[in-house]
Amino acid sequence: MEFEQVRKLIHGVPFISEDQGKMLYEFIRAGGMKECLELGIGHGVGSCYIGAALQETGGKLTTIDRVSAKEREPNVEALLNRTGLESVVTPVYEPNSYTWALLRMIEEHSVEGVCTPYLDFCFVDGAHLFEPDACAFFLVDKLLKPGGWVLFDDLYWTIGSSEFAQEEWAVKLSPAERDQPHILKVYEVLVKQHPAYGDFRITGQWGWARKKGSSEGNVLDAIGAHETLAGYLKRYLRPWKRRLKKLAGFYGS
Ligand SMILES: C[S@@+](CC[C@H](N)C(=O)[O-])C[C@H]1O[C@@H](n2cnc3c(N)ncnc32)[C@H](O)[C@@H]1O
User: Fold this and answer.
1) Which amino acid residue places its CA nearest to atom 20 of ligand 1?
2) How far is the CA of 39 from the centre of ligand 1 (A)?
3) Using one digit for the tens of pLDDT, what is the confidence trace for 28-64?
């Protein structure tokens, strides 16, 4: 399915933007990806963009969320029905977390205690919390082929600035846990320090990394996905903005 077709069919549904959808679509097509995974379905917008590209490459997507995602209006099933991508995208629901589904996938792809990696790409756009997503990274690593890519959304999202900020569990957290971006920590500390990963790149809110071991070219270069100057400045200035805000709060109190 062409990008314009899928874009029109899902126009206006949250969460990812049309520009992000275009980047995902072009990335999957240009990379000729076949086996993809998404952690965090939401309404299924990313699933549709990835699915449309996979229809062209002959690939498939597994996308995982909590059972509660079925209650979304529209839900991924409705969007897949609208786009006709049901045969390309398989939604999987877990009562608690995609980490358990990942464990099951590792077991299913293991023979005599050795897991055979098969994934070309994993889009991590779920909890945005350190514990599930740090765990998810190491689980996904076992499933990701050499040369495969992992992409983290919402690098800068924080609990303190989210709709969860006043919830009981969020109020009990340390200031660092509330105000530091968990996904950025996963990306900077776990992914970038992992000796098996390289080709790190940040585009907007997204952090990309590629598992080493393939001689193929960098598909991000092929599609012209680079960090813009505005994005770089925003990223560079963000920690300073946070410090200034804190300081203003300190002197204001
Ligand atoms: C921002 S939405 C996903 C957006 C989606 N990728 C898109 O393209 O629009 C995040 C989703 O992650 C799910 N989620 C959060 N924590 C999760 C967990 N531990 N296991 C499974 N799903 C989770 C939420 O239920 C929510 O639907």
Assistant:
1) 97
2) 6
3) 999 999 999 999 999 999 999 999 999 999 999 999 9
Q: In the chain, what are the helix, strand and coil shares in percent, each to the nearest 5?
A: 45, 20, 35
Q: Which two tokens stand for residue 167?
A: 């919830």
Nearest CA, atom 19, ligand 1: 97
HSE, side-chain direction, 13 A CA sphere, residue 177: 10
Does ligand 1 have an atom closer than 6 angstroms to the CB of 31?
no
Residues paired with residue 144 on neighbouring β-strands, in sequence order: 119
Cα 40 to ligand 1 centre (Å): 3
Ligand 1 within 6 A of CB of 148: no
Strand ranges (E), 159-205: 197-203
- How many residues does this entry show for the chain? 253
Local structure of residue 1 (DSSP, 8 states) = -
Beta bridge partners of 114: 111
pLDDT over 70 at 253, yes or no: no
Residue 84, Ramachandran bin (φ over 0: left; ψ between -120 and 50: alpha; else beta): left
Phi, psi values for residue 172, rounded to 5°? -80, -10
Q: Rounded to an integer, what is the distance from CA 60 to the centroid of its chain?
A: 17
Please write the tens of the pLDDT for every residue from 109-168.
Answer: 999 999 999 999 999 999 999 999 999 999 999 999 999 999 999 999 999 999 999 999
The superfamily in CATH containing domain 3-226 is Vaccinia Virus protein VP39 (3.40.50.150)
